[in-house]
Amino acid sequence: MVIVTDEASAEQSLAAGSIPCPSCSAGSLRPWGHARSRVLRGLRGVRLLLRPRRARCRACGATHVLLPGEASPRRADTVQVLLTALLAHHGGSGAGSIATDLGVPVDTVRSWLRTVTGRAEWLRQEATRWVCLLDPEHPPIRPTGSRLGDALSALGYAAAATRRRLNVAATPWQLIGWVTAGRLLAPLTPTRSG
Question: Among 189, 181, 90, which residue's Cα sits nearest to residue 130?
Fold first, then answer.
């Protein structure tokens, strides 16, 4: 899986063969159809149709899906919905009220909160690493008093640093999806692509 912030630019890069293969690093990805279509749940009942591009490496033959930054792998909700839930929880809201506000099943919200709380330190470290890489002069990120708050704060700074340094016109949600390599809720693996 390769997370992209701009699908049109990614499509051009794919056609030009300028996206390196995350599996072998020796080859380049080329267009190879599309992954299955799915509908994502956005805020306020908005539904987004997603049909991600699939690509194949010329050298090793591995296939990869180019997933937009606003989508989370194997999730029915956008990154914006997930982060809205996390911000509400950090602000003191419970799973029930968050679920009602977002129109998401309460068990789904509980699962998100449990998952992210368990990996908040990884999220903070990953985001802080990106802040330091993209903005070495950035002052230290101050603790908020909670692991979730620290992670959310670092993710916000990482999104801002990415926008400034790479001059990309993407939403904070897309940038956070890219910074986390789509692993906001997905199982953690050591590889990162895109």
Answer: 181
**Range(s) of the domain holding residue 11:** 2-68
Domain final residue pick, 68, 99, 124: 68
Amino acid at 76: A
Does residue 190 carry a pLDDT above 60? no
State pLDDT tens for residues 74-104.
899 999 999 999 999 999 999 999 999 999 9
| % helix, strand, coil for the chain, step of 5 | 45, 15, 35
Are residues 15 and 100 both part of a single domain?
no
Is residue 64 located within the same domain as residue 83? Answer: no
CA 97 to chain centre: 24
pLDDT band at 194 (very low <50, low <70, confident <90, very high): very low
Residues in CB range of 27: below 8 A, 6 or more apart: 20, 21, 57, 58, 59, 60
Q: Based on the fold, state whether residues 87 and 147 are members of the same structural domain.
A: yes
